[in-house]
Amino acid sequence: MKYGYARVSTVGQDLESQINSLKNEGCEIIYDEKFTGTKSDRPQFQELLSKLSKGDTLVVTKLDRFARSTVDAIQTVKRLFEKGVKVHVLNMGLVEDTPTGRLIFNIMSSFAEFERDMIVERTQEGKAIAKQREDFREGRPNKYSKKQIEHALELLETNSYKQVEERTGISKSTLIRAKKKAVTDK
């Protein structure tokens, strides 16, 4: 049986393209989750690994969807090979349980880990540069203007959070943060 595994790192990311690729590859059962790849306790992946048996094929779209690190990838593939499970990484091909297949897989795993580490490093460098600007603000930019927030806080004086949220579209959590900030800024 062909099993597929799709993963994205954050809730805001979309799994659809991975799932479509896995369906096109003929996967009969697809496990998916929105879970960071740096964590080893990915529940859907662990469940999938427990279901796989001799003759099955595990299909993933890319190597970085599969493992957290080179060591993790190598150990997982080794366990799968010992169970008689084939591994197919769509952007790499079928990973063969041969000396050459394992070598290629180990090299590609190292490149995937290197690429991830470089992304993290560039992100940290960019953030360090951005922090030097005096207008730097940590986190996402506020999608509401100062005037909109002030108006919503005025409405809170005579209305409930729910009523203000319905009238302004500003969520209760944003209103609570703005109210706390207004108190600390005084």
TrEMBL record:
Entry annotation: catalytic residues: S9 (o-(5'-phospho-dna)-serine intermediate)
Domain Resolvase/invertase-type recombinase catalytic: 1-134
A Pfam family the protein falls into: Resolvase
MF GO annotations: DNA binding; DNA strand exchange activity
One of the GO biological process terms: DNA integration
Residues passing through the membrane, by range: none
Family matches, as PROSITE patterns: RECOMBINASES_1, RECOMBINASES_3
InterPro entries linked: Cry35Ab1_HTH, Homeodomain-like_sf, Recombinase_CS, Resolv_N, Resolvase-like_N_sf, SSR_resolvase
Domain of life per record: Bacteria
Alphabetical keyword list: DNA integration, DNA recombination, DNA-binding
Gene3D superfamilies recorded: Homeodomain-like, Resolvase, N-terminal catalytic domain
Family label: Belongs to the site-specific recombinase resolvase family.
Name of this chain's protein: DNA-invertase hin
Species of provenance: Halalkalibacter krulwichiae
Designated gene of the protein: hin_3
